[in-house]
Every structure is written in C-alpha cells, then in structure tokens.
C-alpha cells in the first residue's frame, strides 16, 4: 500500500526543484558517498585486481550504509501514529515517474517551440551522449530511448523493490543504480573499480527490465496505433543484441509497439559507437513521435498502478 500511495503522490507532485536546490535529493546524497569512495579507494597506481577488490568493498559500503539508515528510519516511523505518511513521502522521492515524463516532454516542446538548438539543450539534460550535432530525428530517438530505458530504471524497478522490501529495498536499488551510472562504465579509471557495481546493477535490473517490456506490450493493447504483439516479439529478437543484458528490453519493446527504429550509432565524448538497432521501423522521428511514446508510457504507468493497487488490496485482505 505504501508503494501504491507513494507512486500516486509522485505521479502528481514529483520532487520539487526548489527542494533539490535547498537540500538536494537522496540520489545526490548517495552520489556524494560514491564519489568520496571513488576518490579515496580507486588508486590508479594499484593493480587491476586490487582496484577490483576495492570496488567490491566500495559498493558493499554504500549498500550497507543505505540499509542501516533506511531500515532504522522505517522502524522508527512504523512506531509513530502517522509515521506511514512520512514513509510514503520519503518513498516517493525514490521514484521518477513524473520527473521522467516532464523531462522527455520538454524535449518535444522545445522541438516545436525553440527549434533544434533549444531541443539540443533539453535533451542534453537527460542523455549522456554528445548532443551538439544532433538533428531532429536523432534528438527524438534519444528522448524516446531515454524514456523507454528509464521507465525500468527510474520507475518500475524502484516500485518493485519498494513493494517487496519496503523503503530499504527501494533505497538500496537506487544506490546500486546510481553507483552503476557513476562508476560502472568501462573507462580506464572505472573498468576495475566499477566492475562490481555494474554486475550488481545487471542483477537487480534483470526482472524489472523484462517487466517493463511486458508493460509496454500490455499498454499497446490500449493504443489503436500500437502493436502489442510486435512489442514483445521485437523485444525478444533485438534485446539480446544490446550491450546491456537489460536496457534493450524496454527500448526494443517500445520500438516494436510503435513501429519505431531506435538505437544505432551515437557519440560519447567525441567517440562514435555503433550500437545495435532496436526495431526495424521508422527512424526519421519527430516531436509528434515523442508525444506518441509518452502516450504509451502513460498507459504503461496506469497499468503498473493498477497492479500495485490490486497487490495492496490482496495483501491487506490476506
């Protein structure tokens, strides 16, 4: 029930920008701990094996610290008369349902109202790739790919762990996911130190990624222009080609459902990577296609909330 109510609260309110400016955000706080451990324990003078062990210890420290804080907080709140209200408020900060939608919608709005330059600025806020040379189709693909992938990472996964394991479960998931985004890449500095974070992130996202693909397929049934069968078939065909064992599932499912062609070449810090394509449909995407993807996202979120509501009621009765 806390997971359901937290999702409802976040859907309509989100995490206010003014609050981020004043006190930050739980992900920012976790990120500071990860950054401190990276600075102190990731010694480039040490061997690859030593740095790998240091990375294992670092993610263990992060997970343990988050567990101690959130488990203690949850236990205190559940002794208070209305502590569950505070727990809902805290849990809502770990979900990015509204924030993700707003950020992607801002890209479509910029394409319509500000042109390419404005859209490049907006999409740069939500993607890690180089954006200075992107055209309208590339900007649109980047926004839709981010929407698809982060539906799993930012919404479905934290909700699942929140429903299963309470506030500590969602917080630990966000800690692992944040560590992966900060140190889990294969750069010279983090190939060894971030190895454990990357592997752990792959593990915790295995089920949520496939659940998200399934949600997109179900949501496609409620959209006249979408194809639910193609959503799942595209995910099964194209997702295994993705470098990540998980990221390709929601991306390919959305591509198949809407008849889009996602993925492909993109540049990171001046280096072009030829990534696998997800879906075989339209690649000359526009702001209207971003809006269509958001419509599919909205339907998937309503289905997820419905499932949570049924789960909560079942738990209360039995």
From TrEMBL:
Spans traversing the lipid bilayer: 53-72, 155-176, 300-317
* Pathway annotation: Cofactor biosynthesis; adenosylcobalamin biosynthesis
Name the keywords, alphabetized.
Cell membrane, Cobalamin biosynthesis, Membrane, Transmembrane, Transmembrane helix
A Pfam family cross-referenced in the UniProt record is CobD_Cbib
Main location as per UniProt = membrane
What InterPro entries does UniProt report for this protein, alphabetically? Cobalamin_biosynth_CobD/CbiB (IPR004485)
Compartment list: Cell membrane
Specify the superkingdom: Bacteria
- Give the way it sits in the membrane: Multi-pass membrane protein
Which family does the entry's similarity section mention? Belongs to the CobD/CbiB family.
PANTHER family (alphabetical):
COBALAMIN BIOSYNTHESIS PROTEIN CBIB
Provide the function of this protein. Converts cobyric acid to cobinamide by the addition of aminopropanol on the F carboxylic group.
Question: What is the name of this protein?
Answer: Cobalamin biosynthesis protein CobD
This chain's source organism reads: Pelagibacterium nitratireducens
Traced from the root, the source organism's taxonomic lineage reads:
Bacteria, Pseudomonadati, Pseudomonadota, Alphaproteobacteria, Hyphomicrobiales
The gene it comes from is cbiB
């Amino acid at each position: 029930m806390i997971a359901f109510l937290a999702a409802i609260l976040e859907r309509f309110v989100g995490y206010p920008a003014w609050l981020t400016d004043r006190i930050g955000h739980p992900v920012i706080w976790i990120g500071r701990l990860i950054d401190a451990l990276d600075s102190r324990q990731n010694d480039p003078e040490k061997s690859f094996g030593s740095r790998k062990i240091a990375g294992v210890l670092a993610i263990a420290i992060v997970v343990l610290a988050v567990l101690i804080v959130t488990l203690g907080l949850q236990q205190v709140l559940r002794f208070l008369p209305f502590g569950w209200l505070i727990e809902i408020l805290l849990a809502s900060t770990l979900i990015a349902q509204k924030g993700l939608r707003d950020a992607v919608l801002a890209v479509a709005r910029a394409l319509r109202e500000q042109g390419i330059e404005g859209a490049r600025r907006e999409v740069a806020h939500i993607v890690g790739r180089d954006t200075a040379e992107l055209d309208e189709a590339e900007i649109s693909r980047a926004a839709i790919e981010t929407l698809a992938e982060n539906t799993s990472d930012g919404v479905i996964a934290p909700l699942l762990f929140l429903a299963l394991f309470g506030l500590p479960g969602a917080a630990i998931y966000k800690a692992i996911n944040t560590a992966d985004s900060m140190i889990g890449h294969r750069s010279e500095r983090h190939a060894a130190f971030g190895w454990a974070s990357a592997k752990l992130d792959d593990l915790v996202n295995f089920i949520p990624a496939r659940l998200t693909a399934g949600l997109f397929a179900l949501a496609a049934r409620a959209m006249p222009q979408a194809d639910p069968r193609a959503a799942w078939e595209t995910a099964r065909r194209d997702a295994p080609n993705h470098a990540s064992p998980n990221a390709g599932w929601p991306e390919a499912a959305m591509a198949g459902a809407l008849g889009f062609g996602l993925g492909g070449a993109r540049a990171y810090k001046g280096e072009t990577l030829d990534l696998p394509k997800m879906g075989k449909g339209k690649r000359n995407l526009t702001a209207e296609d971003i809006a269509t993807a958001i419509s599919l996202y909205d339907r998937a979120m309503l289905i997820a909330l419905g499932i949570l509501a049924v789960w909560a009621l079942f738990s209360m009765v039995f």
